[in-house]
Amino acid sequence: MKNVSKIIKAIEIFFIFFIIISLSVILTLKLGIKIDNFELYNLKFEKLYIKLDKKLIVRAENIGIPKFKDNNNSKNSSDYLLNLSQNASLLNTFFQEITIQNIKYDDTSIKITYKNDIFFIDTPIFLADLQISEKLDNKTETIKVKNIFFKDFDIKLNGIISANLKDKKYAFVGNISSYELNGKIEFALVNKLIKYKIYDLNANSLKDFINALDNTIRLNSEVKKWIYGYVIAKKYNLKEITGKIDLVKKDFFLNDLKATASAKNLTVKLDKTLDPIHIKSADIVLEKSNLYFILNNPTYNNRSLNGSNLYIYNIFKHHNSSGVILNLKGNSIYDKSIGDILRFYKINIPIEQKTGDSNLNLNLDINFDTLEVKTNGKITTENTIINIANTPFYAKKAIIDILDSNHLNISAKDFGTELFKSDINASFDLTKKIADINGFLKNFNIETKNQSILNLKNMDFNATLDFSEEYTILSFKELELFMKFDKNNNITCYKPINFIPSSQLLKTLKIKNASFLNINTIDFQNFYITANNVLFDYPLIKKDGSKYENDTFNISISDNNITVKSESKNLIFVSDKYNTDVELNNVDVLLEFNDQNVENTEKIRINGKNSNLIFADINRTLKLPEYKVLLAEDSLSFNSTNNDNRIVFSKNKDEIFLEALNIKGEYINQFLNSKSFDGGNFKLKVIGSTDVFKGEMRFYDTYFKDYKIYQSLLSFLNSIPALLTFKTPDFNNKGFSAKLGKVIFERNKDIINFIAINIEGTSANIIGKGTINLKTKDINIDLEIEILKDASKTIDKIPLLNQIILGKDKTLSTLIKVRGKLDNPQYSTQVIQDTIMAPFKIIRNILQVPFLIFD
Length: 855
Hints:
mainly beta, 51-stranded mixed β-sheet, membrane, transmembrane, YhdP_central, YhdP central domain-containing protein, transmembrane helix
């Protein structure tokens, strides 16, 4: 800027010097003075010619003006304009012609020409090419401006000046160009103050102009980037700029500067890592140091941001903080791309909208001095899926209030996940990364397509959402339920009893309580559950006789499939939509025939290993090394095979079937908890219904013993001397020896009818029939004891008995009637007449029985 000062100083010295010289040597000048070369104290003249005609004529090739003192005052091309306007009247008054090729002042060269109403001056920072066109009145002249060039500002003017040289008032109308800008300008210069209006400026870029403006008024670096850098258009139209400049004070009155403009095809590029905001057009307003952008059809990642705008505040107020407010509006969802804008400014809003209808209104206030970024706004959305800390939540309607950079509130209806639905109000602390939630839980249901695992509904609740880690934890305080959302989602329940009344799974498994449930799932369709210290109600008994009612279970659930494994390995449960498989190991099953509460609509297959069947109604235990049970709707089948032993039982709505083959006497003793048989092999078959059936039992090579009826019969035989004959070797303290036996029976509700009893011993047979009333326990059985041929040889030698008692097959028999109660049977006999008729009646009945189911 020293060159500017030198130039101004040179011009001032030049005019003063020539005025003095002119007045002192006016007479000499009339004749003209020529000086080819003159030098005095660094004042130099070459080819100098001065003559006074009507006015002074000055011509020179070179004039060198000495530097008198340093002047560091900063001046620019506007000083030339001021100087020219202030001295124009002197120029017109005293000079007829000035033609100086070069005025040298220090390192600055100036060219001046004034002739025939044409004025031309060219300096390193200022050029003026003017022509006085006409005089409008005594005070006003019209000056044609061919070119005024403020070189340091790259501003070029051409047009017409109306100049009142006497009062030093000027008005200009014309064209302006500066860097990329081209348009029209009007200004008035009065009392060293310019008031201007620039309009119809067009440009394809503002880059160079903004750089020059920055050099002149020293813009904040971020302001500069936002005016041109972050925001760039392909075409600019500055409709109007109005302002004023004090040329003496060099005050541009920037706060009073006003402008309106438009731009087309804009992009807002906040950072190279972010996608640009595309804007079809923008209306731009500058007022009170604020620059407003009203955006038309803005889009971001193909999402509409209609209604959005931005403005840069305090552009020129250096004593106040400058910044930009970016207002994003529209029906766009708040997704990752919108969130990236905030994250770029280190504002982490843990929300990402995936789907739904949305209304967005978001403000970003970026302070250029402190680099602090403030944000607030509101997002209203319907039928949406929102990721909160990477966890998806559904909401029928949600209002998200962003209070500031560290706090937001969410109010939502039908808010939840696949697991629950609720109405909530949530307050988020983004610094602590935690949210407090309260609301109304409409339902909570962890389920597969066909299976409810945990279920609750219609209750108030308080919860917290912790997203301080890579995973998210939703904690229901009163329920003591904690949900961890991660790649592998986890749900922990410390009060399972809250869920049991409404849980289909827990009720199906007959779980009464548990210490806690730990549920893992990736997709909320497949679940892996650990149920710790579970208390349940199964008809199962441990081998030590205690009830099996507590264990820890590992449960796997997928679609229709459920697998349950106990930690003790006593119980394995596998179920699908149609079948259920249960494996019992080392536990016994308690059965009650009268249990009417068993309901089953799907097939259940039970495999038992080292598992006994305990019949509670009769207090009997059936020990089985292995068995299989199939339960289906209204049907049951049982099968147990061990070597040659086999037990088969089936039951449906109308029929039952029982078959036992090759059953040992000891096995029956164990089941009956008695010593009824010694050795032997048994078969049993029953066909019918529960209350009405027919059956047949066969046995081979066994001893009947320890039967109350048998002992009573033995005592009865011993008590009557006439019957001692019938106490053959088969009747002894060890029992009755039976080589072969057959019992055919039927049941009709409470009545068991023994159609035929035929027991063949080595020396005697027992043949009988009768009934037992299960309800009254009344006995009505007739038994015929028959002594075989080998045992009746003694009787054969007695003529009278031989004629009366022996039949044609040389046997002796008697009829014994058993009456009374099951627990106290009474015996009677009629040795003579009844015993004669009994064999024929009973044997005939046996022979007439058509129901021989083993044959």
